[in-house]
Amino acid sequence: MTDMVLINTHAVIPASMVNGPGNRMVVFFQGCDRRCPGCFNPATHPLDVRCLYTPEEIFHRYFIEGIEGITVSGGEPFLQPEALYELLKAAKGRGLTTVVYTGFDYEDVSSDGPKRRVFDFTDVMVDGRFDIGRKEPTLLARGSTNQRLHFLNSIYRESDFLMPGKVEVIIGKDGRVMETGFGRAVPYLS
Amino acid sequence: MSFYTVIDTELKSKKHIILALEELKRRGEITKYGLVVKQDKIRIDRSGDIIHIGLDVKTGNFHVEGDVRVVEAFAKRLKQFYAYESIKESLPLDFEIASEREIAGDITLVLKG
Fold first, then answer.
1. Predicted confidence (pLDDT) per residue in A135-175, tens digit
2. In this structure, which CATH number among 3.30.420, 3.20.20, 3.30.2010, 3.90.550 belongs to the domain A2-181?
3. What are phi and psi of A82, to 5 degrees?
4. Chain B contact set for A175 (CB, 8 A)
5. How far is A163 from chain B (nearest CA, A)?
6. Is the pTM here over 0.80, yes or no?
7. How close does chain A come to B100, measured CA to CA in Å?
8. Per-domain boundaries in chain A
9. Among A61, A167, B13, B46, which is disulfide-ready with A185 (CB 3.0 to 4.6 Å)?
10. ipTM above 0.90, yes or no
11. Mind listing the pLDDT tens digit for each residue in B62-78?
12. Of A43, A73, A103, the CB nearest to B2
């Protein structure tokens, strides 16, 4: 059944240093109804279909050897709980660590059966809406200080989420420029 | 959520084109380049392959002309270093490059702010 689950995906970065501990594949889900004012990613909000991948297709297309784990961001990953579950399960099957960012609170997720199942394959969940008035001032990998890091096992601790930088710019060999992280640095990309 | 954005690079600034060409020359990827004043073009010698960069007055962007065998790959490489030079120059004062690496042809800059 795993291969039948499709993930509505906004984008995938094969390797990033600023989206959680170590070098990580980052999967941005498409679709979010949280509408946090000042959200960095308004293009991920529409619930329209953008790119549909099975978890296996994501790994086949984007996986590179040597990454430590996978980070799921968005968009709102928990609007696709079944797809999120299968993606994290597939990641764990490859020995990867897993981090999930969500605009929901931990309590909302843990009291909802289909969503809570995702915890089976999640190492760390970063929860809460983005609050533009409380932007994270340090290199901790979160957008605002109200967002909480929930360590669902002992693989990581908070110090692992102090990033080497706030922003990462990847200039592809095709000339395309990708910016990711928890701040904006390149004016002409805004 | 972390953020994600992506753009295609357009060659708009002659200054950054020159900086990118300097970097390509330093890396040995082009032999030499020079301005062709009469044609208002930049002439590039890439180990015997001649490529020109000229301004498209309609779009205001520069474009790369030459033998189809080499021009596409060269234009992509030029755009990559053009983006690299223009990003370095346009960084806000409160940001600095913490690390820089090149993996499988992609250049990654980690920025501290």
1. 999 999 999 999 999 999 999 999 999 999 999 999 999 88
2. 3.20.20
3. -65, -45
4. 8-9, 75-80, 82-83
5. 9
6. yes
7. 10
8. 2-181
9. A167
10. no
11. 999 998 888 999 999 99
12. A73
